[in-house]
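Example 9 (inverse folding). The structure is encoded as follows.
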């Protein structure tokens, strides 16, 4: 097989896989940056691949934070009037008397 270079852009590996398919004659399945069904159909119809693998998009940090917040439960006060009986100042550290 001749030396092949991988082109840039979303279909960079598709050109390499097309060369492998045409020169060696084995079935190929590109994966990676395949945009969707239209891109899959164009690869298959053009004879550049035999099968296409679609991958899930990677979650972003914002997706992880959103999933964590959805599962958080906030603590409930011990009873309905707890805030009035024991205001935040009274719940603070005990005061020490100066002599």
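The amino acid assigned to each position is listed next.
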């Amino acid at each position: 097989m001749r030396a092949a270079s991988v082109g840039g852009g979303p279909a960079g590996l598709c050109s390499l896989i097309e060369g492998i398919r045409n020169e060696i004659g084995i079935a190929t399945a590109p994966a990676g940056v395949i945009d969707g069904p239209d891109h899959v159909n164009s690869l298959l119809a053009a004879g550049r691949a035999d099968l296409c693998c679609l991958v899930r998009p990677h979650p972003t940090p914002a997706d992880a934070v959103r999933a964590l917040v959805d599962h958080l439960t906030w603590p409930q006060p011990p009873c309905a009037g707890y805030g009035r009986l024991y205001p935040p100042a009274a719940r603070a550290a005990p005061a020490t008397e100066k002599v």
